[in-house]
Amino acid sequence: MSAFEEDEYVGADALSRRTKLTEIRVDPEKWETLYQDMETGDLWVLDYPNSHLHGGGSPRLRRKF
Asked: Is residue 39 a contact partner of residue 20, using CB atoms and an 8 Å limit?
């Protein structure tokens, strides 16, 4: 059973939940990092969808379907 109840997390919650995942790949041009939940095999993407804001805005962690 995964520790993730939702399909998307934002801000500090996204960063906190990211620590439970394994980093797979980083794309610095897109400001995206691909992670995997080793318990379930689910893939997750950490990105910054509001890149026009200072520092890229709040991080978003979303399940990749």
From this structure: no
